């Protein structure tokens, strides 16, 4: 009897397991992001930027205040904690700057806490209770909406206003990246952007001018054709579809370059975005061109770029190299030292050229990558003032000059360029300056600053998948449409949970 | 009340005192979090998971039926089916080879077990140097590429057909040291006399291996199988470093663990969905361990 019940129970467990296994192997359901959303509101179908903003942030006066003079009345040293995600050489430079700040005055003492990277910093910040938050946090460019929605920050705009801080020499695009709904939320600190890396030797061998890399998509095609036809290299351009590189930025960068909105509500800058727009004709045209570059044998798709280097290493392929690739400007130092080690036969350090990221439209232009500084609101005016003091130090012209020369990030303000060491670096090797110059003039519309989305990182993974599918030969319009639908359901769910 | 029952009741306070501490630990660190995860699995939350709303238990069914989850389960099963048997076979093979009394055998034992001291990150980077399609070691061996053009285009880690096996090979390699050590210890527990008497009875080398060595290794092999299986289901580092769950769009190496936690997962910041997937993974692993102990456990000889 006893035996039998045990056996029956075991069998029941087995049947339940098999049921899971069978259903798991059975026909496909929907996407996981649509799970359990029966109660979630339907995606807004209006979506034009004329629509009244649904959730507008409070004006500056209703946000946590900043009183820079509070530091004057502080007795003793104010101890602050700063969470950052810088590693390797970047961390060394940040530590050196922080030591310099701590030694320069006695009012504020900064303790750095390395969280391992952007992702880890952000995850830990979101999962920490308000009691265990730091006083300052470095957060990546894709976290703007997410951090706004935590309501845990003193916008640096409040400090800028109260301190009458002059931002006229700042790179407008860098500031604008962290400006939404009328508020300057964070201070850009480390800024990079995608640039074109190319092999000047291959350009010479193909009879092209090694000093004029392609800037438009048309030039990219004709020069690639010349390179391939002449046999100077097997491919013109190495492309990748990684979410942190090609797949994540071709669309966002090129929409911004064209001044076309990527999402509704003015790229999420007048109110949170409810809908992406990248499946429109502009998106279809851009990706059709990218696809045909691959189909015509002019570009080579290295895939996901999971190692982060696959596109750049294609330039060093001894068998079938590409002559150009697009990668972050932050990689320039590494690229030059790898080339100096003799990785590409017959190519020296001076044979690597750097140009602005090619793309549609006229003048060069790019939107910023990298990260910014956020002041955490812990209800203590003295700590806020002390944080602001350190932020001012980190973005001062001299600090930015030192930081840019040591790391390869571009200075966030133009006055830094007149100061050594970056002045000398840029004069000696203009390649480092390309990323700075292409940020260009102030954006004339929110569309040219790039989009702010709640689930921005996840949406980049979706566009990366779509671009990978398209470069493998899928139909462009239907693939983009499906990606846009997936992105829109992520947005709808995000707004329903965070609105 | 019989005497026995009375005696049993007398033991209750003492039992409570003795069991209490571990009960507290069990409830606080296992049962309570498990319960919370099950509850969270039917919710949707804001980014800080401070405001959550229930969307119904149907979320579990929806996740179970979703393309992403089913693909991840299938990838995980394939990964385990490759890494566990191959890892086990190689581990047994190396351990038997090294289980000899000869000079300098210590050198080989050290080499065979060396991967224990290699972290996942270092091992994966080394495999990346081997497998990188442009400048990697394998990509520049001419004759090898003539036979397997996939090494060069698109690359073993970039091809949807070979990515999972390539990650599996690196995982097998990384776990081999551990398997080798455990099985070597098992081999040394087998009495020499049994081998010798089998030899006297005329059993050849293979016969002695299948009829003496393997059965007596039973408990060791069961343990190793269970550990390797759970490692396969929890594999994360090598996937993150080698493929990021790709190649996209097929997501050929997105295992269930990677779907929950991976940097390229589309549910990365959705605590409710992550909890739902994690709970389903728990149910699957629970069933699998039960099957392993029930199915294999019976056949294992634990000695008299």
TrEMBL record, chain A:
Keyword entries, A-Z: Signal, Transport
Organism: freshwater metagenome
Compartment annotation: Cell envelope
This protein's name: Unannotated protein
Biased composition (Polar residues): 35-47
PROSITE patterns: PROKAR_LIPOPROTEIN
Region (Disordered) location: 35-71
Key word NAD present: no
Residue stretches of biased makeup (Low complexity): 48-64
Signal peptide: none
UniProt-listed SUPFAM superfamilies: Periplasmic binding protein-like II
Pfam family name, one: SBP_bac_8
GO cellular component, one term: cell envelope
TrEMBL record, chain B:
Gene3D superfamilies: MetI-like
Keyword set includes Ribonucleoprotein: no
Membrane topology designation: Multi-pass membrane protein
Domain ABC transmembrane type-1: 73-292
Gene Ontology cellular component terms for the protein in this record: plasma membrane
Keywords (A to Z) from UniProt: Cell membrane, Membrane, Transmembrane, Transmembrane helix, Transport
CDD domains linked: TM_PBP2 (cd06261)
Subcellular location as annotated: Cell membrane
Residue spans crossing the bilayer: 12-32, 72-98, 110-130, 163-187, 275-293
InterPro entries: ABC_transporter_permease, MetI-like, MetI-like_sf
Protein name, as recorded: Unannotated protein
Organism: freshwater metagenome
């Amino acid at each position: 009897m006893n035996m039998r019940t045990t056996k029956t129970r075991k069998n029941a467990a087995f049947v339940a397991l098999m049921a899971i296994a069978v259903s798991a192997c059975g026909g496909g359901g929907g996407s996981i992001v649509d799970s359990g959303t029966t109660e979630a509101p339907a995606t807004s179908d209006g979506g034009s930027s004329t629509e009244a903003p649904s959730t507008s942030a409070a004006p500056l006066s209703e946000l946590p205040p900043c009183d820079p003079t509070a530091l004057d009345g502080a007795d003793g040293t104010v101890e602050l904690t700063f969470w950052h995600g810088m590693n390797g050489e970047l961390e060394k430079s940040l530590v050196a700057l922080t030591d310099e700040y701590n030694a320069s005055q006695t009012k504020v003492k900064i303790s750095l806490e390395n969280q391992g990277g952007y992702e880890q910093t952000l995850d830990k910040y979101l999962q920490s209770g308000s009691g265990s938050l730091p006083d300052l946090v470095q957060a990546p460019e894709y976290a703007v909406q997410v951090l706004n929605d935590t309501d845990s920050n003193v916008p640096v705009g409040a400090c800028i206003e109260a301190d009458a801080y002059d931002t006229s020499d700042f790179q407008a695009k860098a500031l604008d990246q962290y400006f939404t709904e009328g508020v300057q939320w964070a201070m850009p600190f480390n800024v990079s952007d995608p640039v074109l890396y190319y092999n000047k030797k291959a350009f010479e061998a193909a009879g092209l001018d090694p000093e004029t890399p392609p800037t438009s998509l048309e030039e990219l095609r004709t020069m690639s054709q010349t390179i391939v036809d002449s046999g100077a290299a097997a491919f013109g351009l190495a492309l990748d579809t990684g979410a942190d590189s090609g797949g994540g930025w071709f669309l966002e960068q090129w929409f911004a370059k064209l001044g076309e909105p990527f999402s509704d509500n003015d790229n999420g800058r007048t109110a949170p975005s409810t809908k992406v727009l990248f499946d429109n004709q502009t998106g279809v045209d851009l990706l059709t061109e990218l696809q045909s570059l691959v189909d015509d044998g002019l570009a080579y798709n290295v895939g996901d770029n999971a190692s982060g280097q696959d596109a750049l290493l294609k330039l060093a392929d001894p068998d079938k190299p590409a002559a150009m690739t697009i990668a972050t400007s932050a990689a320039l130092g590494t690229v030059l030292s790898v080339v100096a080690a003799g990785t590409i036969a017959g190519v020296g350090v001076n044979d690597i050229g750097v140009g602005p990221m090619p793309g549609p439209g006229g003048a060069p232009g790019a939107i910023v990558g990298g990260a910014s500084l956020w002041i955490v609101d812990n209800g203590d005016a003295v700590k806020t003032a002390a944080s602001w003091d350190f932020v001012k130090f980190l973005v001062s012209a001299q600090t930015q000059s030192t930081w840019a020369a040591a790391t390869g990030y571009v200075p966030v303000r133009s006055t830094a360029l007149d100061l050594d060491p970056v002045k000398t670096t840029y004069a000696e090797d203009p390649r480092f300056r390309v990323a700075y110059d292409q940020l260009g003039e102030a954006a004339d519309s929110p569309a040219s600053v790039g989009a702010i989305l709640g689930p921005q990182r996840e949406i980049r993974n979706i566009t990366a998948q779509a671009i990978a599918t398209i470069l493998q030969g899928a139909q462009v319009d239907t693939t983009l449409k499906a990606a846009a639908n997936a992105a829109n359901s992520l947005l709808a769910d995000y707004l329903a949970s965070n609105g | 009340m019989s005497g026995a029952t009375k005696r049993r009741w007398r033991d209750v306070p003492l039992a409570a005192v003795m069991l209490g501490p571990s009960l507290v630990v069990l409830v606080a660190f296992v049962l309570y979090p498990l319960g919370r995860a099950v509850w969270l699995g039917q919710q949707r939350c804001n980014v800080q998971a401070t405001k959550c709303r229930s969307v119904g238990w149907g979320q579990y069914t929806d996740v179970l039926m979703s393309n992403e989850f089913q693909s991840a389960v299938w990838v995980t099963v394939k990964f385990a089916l490759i890494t566990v048997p191959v890892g086990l076979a190689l581990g047994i093979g190396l351990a038997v080879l090294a289980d000899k009394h000869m000079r300098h055998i210590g050198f080989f034992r050290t080499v065979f077990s060396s991967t224990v001291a290699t972290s996942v990150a270092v091992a994966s980077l080394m495999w990346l140097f081997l497998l990188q399609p442009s400048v990697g070691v394998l990509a520049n061996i001419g004759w090898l590429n003539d036979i397997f053009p996939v090494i060069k285009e698109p690359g073993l880690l970039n091809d949807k057909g070979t990515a999972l096996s390539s990650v599996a090979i690196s995982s097998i390699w990384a776990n081999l040291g551990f398997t080798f050590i455990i099985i070597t210890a098992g081999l040394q527990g087998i009495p020499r006399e049994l081998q010798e008497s089998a030899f006297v009875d005329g059993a050849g080398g293979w016969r002695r291996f299948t009829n003496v060595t393997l059965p007596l290794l039973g408990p060791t092999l069961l343990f190793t199988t269970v550990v390797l299986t759970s490692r396969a289901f929890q594999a994360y580092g090598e996937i993150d470093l080698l493929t990021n769950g790709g190649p996209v769009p097929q997501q050929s190496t997105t295992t269930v663990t990677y779907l929950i936690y991976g940097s390229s997962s589309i549910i990365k910041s959705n605590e409710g969905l992550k909890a739902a997937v994690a709970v389903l993974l728990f149910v699957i692993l629970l069933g699998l361990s039960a099957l392993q102990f029930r199915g294999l456990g019976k056949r294992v000889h634990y000695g008299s």
